[in-house]
Design goal:
Shape: elongated
Distance between the termini: 56 Å
Strand content: under 5%
Number of strands: 2
Strand order of the largest sheet: 1-2
Number of helices: 3
């Protein structure tokens, strides 16, 4: 059917599905023109209708593909988060001990800094008042020795932690391959 043969909106294949007939307004008050405004007299309505239906079908398929991609991305993100959480739990005790040792080293360094500052202040005061006595902080302070041993333990724990993570990932791969 050609557009010029159309007598009434009720005969149009677009009426009801794509068009409400005549000029309408959107909820914001903007006028919405019907599709027939842009048609020529020799346009075939059946071809236009099939193109519109095909366009809507392609749009819905594209929306479905986009939704599936988003769901897949979301699923993979949740999977990665779950694996990361499991990995953190696998090395929890080592990480906790490393954190505690680092805090202890930091506290020891604060004590050493305080001791050095006190020695300098005492020496400055003694020099100012003309006293011969000088205070010196030991070159190999027990706190420095303790920090060295704590750092060695941290290095050992980091190696243990890496080995545990490797083992954990290996087990995860075996479980994943076993399920596939």
């Amino acid at each position: 059917m050609l557009y010029k043969d159309l007598q009434d909106c009720d005969d149009c294949p677009f009426f009801g599905e794509f068009c409400k007939g005549g000029m309408t307004c959107s909820p914001s008050g903007d006028p919405i023109e019907p599709p027939c405004v842009n048609w020529n007299d020799n346009d075939d309505l059946d071809v236009l209708y099939h193109e519109a239906v095909e366009g809507e079908r392609r749009y819905e398929e594209a929306q479905e593909r986009r939704w599936k991609r988003e769901q897949e991305i979301k699923r993979k993100k949740e999977e990665r988060a779950k694996k990361a959480k499991q990995a953190r739990w696998a090395v929890w005790s080592e990480q906790r001990e490393i954190t505690q040792l680092r805090k202890k080293i930091k506290n020891n360094e604060r004590l050493l800094s305080y001791a050095n500052a006190m020695a300098k202040a005492t020496n400055f005061a003694n020099e100012m008042f003309g006293y011969e006595e000088r205070v010196a902080v030991r070159e190999r302070n027990p706190l420095e020795l303790e920090n060295e041993s704590l750092q060695k333990r941290i290095d050992e724990l980091i190696i243990i932690k890496k080995e545990k993570l490797k083992e954990h990932r290996k087990k995860q791969k075996e479980v994943a391959n076993g399920q596939s």
